[in-house]
């Protein structure tokens, strides 16, 4: 298995909702990442997990809460989002933080 | 901040070689050059990386100048499916503390029939 999967593909949520994005990889990678990408902009790093521990939080608001339950799974919990949080959320993984990253297809999030 | 500069857009005729340049004049000795691409509405795709020697794989070739201040990604026979935004990224390996992949604006390559 050489891919990163993300669910759901699309998500529409209200500003008072709580939802979660899920990312999974079965390549034995030990680093996993969340990126946010606004339309016509490059991806921006949000969080880095290394060996299931959060190693980087790029000053992301607390309404985004990452979780790494095990080495294959990465979640992003969403609560009280704003319309400006609407974006493509990308998950990636790599063998280690040193190595090239492999990306999932993304979840397109719309906050109404 | 991205440490690379790339032209914002390029066109290439289908079947011809696409040569995508990247300037990284402040590259350090332990920084590798990575290339990714992102086809519309998909996740970025890793293409290739190199330190100082030229590299080739099934997708592309990477040519790095001797002074390592610039590089060129070559898609030898571009197809319509190669239309994408191409990102050139420099990053140390082993990674300096806190250093991550930083995506710049990239080059939007349009392969024309």
Q: Count the helices of chain A. How many?
A: 0
Give the H and E element order of chain A: EEEEEEEEEEE
Secondary-structure element order of chain B, N to C:
EEEEEEEEE
What fraction strand of chain B? over 45%
Task: Characterize the main sheet of chain A.
Answer: 7 strands, mixed
Strand content of chain A: over 45%
The best one-word shape of chain A is globular
SS-derived structural category of chain A: mainly beta
Bulk shape of chain B: globular
Overall mean confidence score, pLDDT of chain B: 91
The spatial strand order of the largest sheet of chain B comes to: 1-9-8-3-4
Fraction of residues of chain B in helices?
Answer: under 10%
* Alpha-carbon Rg of chain B, integer: 13 Å
Summarize the SSE layout with pairings.
The complex is a heterodimer of chains A (112) and B (113).
Chain A (H helix, E strand, L loop, with lengths): L3 E4 L2 E4 L4 E8 L5 E7 L6 E7 L2 E5 L6 E7 L2 E7 L7 E8 L7 E2 L3 E5 L1
Parallel strand pairs in A: 2-11
Antiparallel strand pairs in A: 1-3, 3-8, 4-5, 4-9, 5-6, 7-8, 9-10, 9-11
Chain B lengths: L8 E5 L4 E6 L7 E8 L6 E6 L4 E2 L4 E4 L5 E6 L8 E9 L14 E6 L1
Parallel strand pairs in B: 1-9
Antiparallel strand pairs in B: 2-7, 3-4, 3-8, 5-6, 6-7, 8-9
Describe this structure in words.
- The complex is a heterodimer of chains A (112) and B (113).
- Helix content of chain A is 0%, strand content 57%.
- Chain A is mainly β.
- In chain A, strands 2, 4, 5, 6, 9, 10 and 11 form a seven-stranded mixed sheet that branches.
- In chain A, β9 (87-94) and β10 form a beta hairpin.
- The N and C termini of chain A lie far apart (36 Å).
- The mean pLDDT of chain A is 93.
- Chain B is mainly beta.
- Chain B is built from no helices and nine strands.
- A five-stranded mixed sheet of chain B has the order 1-9-8-3-4, with no helix packed on it. Chain B has a four-stranded antiparallel sheet with strand order 2-7-6-5, with no helix packed on it.
- The radius of gyration of chain B is 13 Å and the shape is globular.
- The interface between A and B is medium-sized, with 21 and 21 residues.
């Amino acid at each position: 298995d050489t891919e990163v999967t993300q669910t759901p593909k699309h998500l529409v949520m209200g500003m008072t909702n709580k939802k979660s994005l899920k990312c999974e990889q079965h390549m034995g990678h030990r680093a996993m990442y969340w990126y946010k990408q606004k339309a016509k902009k490059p991806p921006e790093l949000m969080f880095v997990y290394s060996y299931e521990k959060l190693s980087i939080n790029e000053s992301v608001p607390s309404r985004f809460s990452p979780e790494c339950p095990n080495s294959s799974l990465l979640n992003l919990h969403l609560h009280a989002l704003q319309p400006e949080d609407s974006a493509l959320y990308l998950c990636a993984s790599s063998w280690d933080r040193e190595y090239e990253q492999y990306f999932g297809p993304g979840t397109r999030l719309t906050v109404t | 901040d991205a440490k690379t500069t790339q032209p914002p857009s390029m066109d290439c005729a289908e079947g011809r070689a696409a040569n995508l340049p990247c300037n990284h004049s402040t590259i350090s000795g332990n920084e590798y050059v990575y290339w990714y691409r992102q086809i519309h509405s998909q996740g970025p795709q890793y293409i290739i990386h190199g330190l100082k020697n030229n590299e080739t794989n099934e997708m592309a070739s990477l040519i790095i100048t001797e002074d390592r201040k610039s590089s060129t990604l070559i898609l030898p026979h571009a197809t319509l499916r190669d239309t994408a935004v191409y990102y050139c990224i420099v990053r140390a390996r082993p990674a300096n503390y806190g250093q991550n992949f930083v995506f710049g604006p990239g080059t939007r390559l349009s392969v024309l029939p």
